[in-house]
Write a structure and sequence with these properties.
The chain is an alpha/beta fold and 318 residues long. Helices cover 40% and strands 16% of the residues. The chain is built from 12 helices and 7 strands. The chain has helices at 14-24, 40-50, 54-62, 65-72, 79-82, 99-106, 121-128, 168-178, 196-205, 211-221, 270-273, 280-310; strands at 90-93, 114-118, 137-140, 153-159, 179-191, 224-230, 244-253. Strands 3-2-1-4-5-7-6 form a 7-stranded mixed beta sheet, with helices on both faces. Helix 2 packs across helix 12 (280-310), helix 8 packs across helix 10 (211-221) and helix 9 packs antiparallel against helix 12. It is globular and about 50 Å long.
Length: 318
């Protein structure tokens, strides 16, 4: 059986300290004082209500089927199917309602070889109702502390989840750990905006990493052949100044000789070091204010769609 809790990242030593500080600086909130929903407790409540309309409101504006296919292409999910090799074993971390998981199955991976993990029972309830995912293993879990043995999966996929991880570097270290040697990780997530208002709203809502941060996190975790592919809604015409909730697909390979855990050693999880938990009022306030900031990113796709509709196709959005 592959479903037992792994040992997880070990205690931090001097060899890993400088790399961790560099790769985690933005993730730890040192430069961003807000990020009201970049915490698991707030994200749980956020999706408690968003799950009701996620597939109908969020995906059409930020994560279309065309984007999903484009983003998952570097994961090479189709290789085993086309070459008639043994089916890949795939984990989809933070798969929510199963939209990305559906893309994995449609790429040719048998449903019984796919595991969907998410911390939101409300999102998973939606996933379990999808006929395309019948046969998939669907369970609650923590991206930063996966309960699977080391060297278990051929592919690690995570789409639209990293923005809620308190420590993104730790989640990517876990991706490395659960992959078999030669396995490939594919992470799809937001990119940080440059427009002043969009940047303020993004930082008030959740984590929007820069493209360089993704590359640094993957390399620090031990991945090789790290690549980043830009994605985005077609009607944005390549515009990235407002940031994108799904803006890039990052891939990395766990070397054939890299059996075992990541060479990057981390200390105790930040949430385990906290001695005082936030009260209900503080949590409620963070969820409400964070949701208001997030609403801005429901408006932006509509604005860009109208802009695309009105302006000549020759005009570039920069």
């Amino acid at each position: 059986g592959g479903r037992v809790r792994g040992r997880g990242p070990r205690a931090l030593n001097s060899r890993g300290r400088s790399n961790v500080r560099t790769a985690r600086s933005a993730a730890a909130g040192e430069t961003a004082p807000f990020r009201l929903i970049q915490h698991k407790h707030e994200a749980w409540w956020f999706y408690r209500y968003l799950s009701q309309v996620y597939d109908h409101i969020v995906n059409p504006g930020h994560w279309t089927k065309d984007m999903r296919e484009d983003a998952l292409e570097p994961a090479l999910l189709h290789v085993a199917h086309k070459r008639r090799l043994s089916p890949l074993k795939v984990i989809d971390v933070g798969g929510g309602t199963g939209f990305s998981t559906t893309g994995i199955v449609e790429a040719g991976v048998p449903a019984e070889n796919v595991t969907l993990v998410d911390q939101s029972p409300h999102q998973l309830e939606k996933a379990r109702k999808k006929p395309q995912l019948k046969g998939c293993t669907i369970e609650e879990g923590d991206a930063e502390n996966l309960r699977f043995e080391t060297n278990t999966f051929d592919r690690y996929v995570s789409c639209g989840s990293i923005e809620y991880w308190p420590d993104p570097q730790r989640g990517i270290v876990e991706a490395f750990r659960v992959l078999k040697p030669g396995g490939l990780a594919c992470m799809v997530g937001p990119v940080h905006p440059t427009h002043w208002l969009s940047r303020f709203m993004a930082d008030a809502w959740m984590l929007f990493p820069t493209e360089q941060e993704y590359l640094d996190w993957f390399r620090a975790a031990g991945f090789t052949s790290v690549k980043l592919k830009r994605i985005g809604p077609k009607w944005y015409r390549g515009c990235r100044k407002h940031g994108l909730i799904m803006g890039c697909s990052v891939t990395g390979v766990k070397g054939l000789s890299a059996e075992g855990e990541s060479p990057l050693e981390l200390g105790e999880m930040a949430e385990n070091r906290q001695t005082k938990k936030a009260g209900w009022f503080t949590t409620l306030l963070r969820v409400v204010l964070g949701s208001l900031a997030g609403f801005y990113y429901f408006v932006i796709p509509v604005y860009m769609w109208l802009k695309n509709l009105v302006l000549p196709k020759s005009v570039k959005f920069t």
